[in-house]
Design brief:
With about 425 residues, the chain is of the alpha/beta class. It folds into two domains: about 180 residues, no CATH class; about 190 residues, Rossmann fold. It contains 17 helices and 14 strands. The strands form three sheets. It has a seven-stranded mixed beta sheet, sandwiched between helices. Strand 8, helix 12 and strand 9 form a beta-alpha-beta unit. Helix 4 runs antiparallel to helix 6 and helix 4 packs across helix 9. The chain is elongated and about 90 Å long.
């Protein structure tokens, strides 16, 4: 009986009133979110991670709003005006390419079902951007089904960012009009990006909220960066320049235990034919994605196996934070044997650091006690054929929450 009465009451409410009530309920459920906290989502009802994998663009789901094709189109329109609608110009835009990709996969992009109709969609979008009715466009939606006027997002796990489900155009307009916050319907469950999933597979440090080398992805904002890396790179470049060992004088570089490949990427930028090796295939896969490193530049192998198989050496090598594991008896040969392999692989200069006795790692016990910069310098000199062992100074990684760790001295070992 109660259900019949409720149904009759609902029928008695005018359609317009019911719509206003529905809008009010929706508005009450919406929460202000930062526009710049939104990462590019999927399209056509497909979530960002699935869409990114479908199209082979893993970093799509990590893209900040400033790099979206929607924002790029508005920025281009602001720069060149109506010239953007010239076919030869428009069809070279990221916005057109994204729309055409959607049509190819799903058969439509918003109202467009053939690529030629993307132009009309884009023109309506730009008209909305040009409109002075910013408040009407950006504030609470009148129709939750309107993709231009409703923003829905998923929180990204272990991050302060959001993945957009609907509302890319509306957010893009807000961004271009310098609106900092916008009301959004926050959906559950929390999601992850493909990049986060890839990093979860990296063998070390598995299961922790840490990352070993810098990765410029906004959803990683809550990860602890263990190694700054740029501090070492500055010392490396300065030393190579002072010794006249930069390209083209020296051309080849190998990073032993390269992890994601940050140093391989940076040395490539300054002209080296740079390669890296690591035993963790997941780490190398991340490096290929985030740094754009070529398959042939990254070798999956243990350091000992790879170095033993070398027929020729490299002008410059590096080995960071690995040798102390041999001292701790965790690997297959002695630390001295490993050092001999590094020596043989290096033609001109090797950059080297390792764990030191002052670091607070409980699992090390007393095995590295007394291993300070001076002892390491003597050890390097006594077990290699390098003519000079030069101290370049400590790293800058001994900061909270690792203020009692790191501060490892970087050495340059020179022929």
């Amino acid at each position: 009986m109660l259900q019949l009465i409720t149904a009759a009451y609902r029928k008695s409410i005018p359609i317009l009133m019911r719509k206003r009530i529905a809008d009010l309920r929706l508005k009450m459920r919406m929460t202000p979110i930062r526009v710049d906290a939104c990462l590019q989502g999927g399209d056509n009802g497909v979530r960002a991670a699935s869409f990114a994998r479908m199209v082979g663009d893993i970093l799509r789901a990590s893209r900040p709003i400033s790099e979206w094709p929607h924002v790029t189109l508005l920025r281009q329109y602001r720069e060149i005006g109506e010239w953007i609608w010239d076919r030869n110009v428009f069809e070279e835009t990221d916005y057109y390419r994204n729309g055409a990709l959607n049509i190819e996969i799903f058969g439509r992009y918003l109202d467009a079902i053939i690529p030629e109709q993307i132009l009309q969609v884009a023109q309506r979008f730009v008209d909305a951007y040009r409109s002075e009715e910013t408040d009407c466009f950006v504030n609470a939606p009148r129709d939750a089904r309107n993709r231009y006027k409703c923003v829905t997002v998923h929180p990204i796990r272990n991050s302060s960012r959001f993945q957009v489900y609907t509302g890319h155009h509306r957010l893009a307009i807000a961004h271009m009009k310098r609106i900092e916050e916008i009301p959004a319907l926050i959906l559950q469950p929390q999601v992850t990006t493909p990049l986060q999933d890839m990093l979860d597979d990296v063998l070390w440090p598995a299961g922790s909220r840490e990352i070993y080398q810098p990765v410029a992805a906004p959803e990683l904002d809550r990860l602890v960066l263990l190694r700054r890396c740029s501090d070492r790179m500055t010392k490396i470049i300065e030393f190579l320049r002072s010794e006249n060992l930069l390209p083209p004088v020296c051309g080849s570089y190998l990073d032993v235990a390269c992890n994601l490949g940050w140093f391989v990427s940076e040395m490539t930028k300054i002209g080296f034919h740079a390669e890296g090796l690591d035993s963790d295939p997941a780490a190398l896969s991340v490096g290929r994605v985030v740094y754009g490193l070529k398959q042939e530049r990254l070798h999956r192998a243990s350091a000992v196996t790879f170095l033993r198989g070398l027929r020729d050496g490299y002008d410059v090598t590096s080995c960071f934070s690995l040798a102390h594991h041999f001292i701790l008896n965790r690997l297959s040969v002695s630390a001295e044997e490993f050092l001999h392999l590094l020596d043989a692989a290096t033609r001109r200069v090797m950059f080297f650091d390792m764990g030191q006795g002052h670091e607070d790692f409980e699992e090390w016990g007393e095995k590295l006690k007394g291993w300070d910069a001076e002892r390491i310098r003597r050890w390097l000199g006594g077990n290699t054929s390098f003519s000079r062992i030069v101290e370049l100074g400590p790293d800058e990684d001994a900061v909270p929450p690792n203020e009692n760790r790191y501060g490892r001295t970087l050495f340059a070992c020179v022929r």
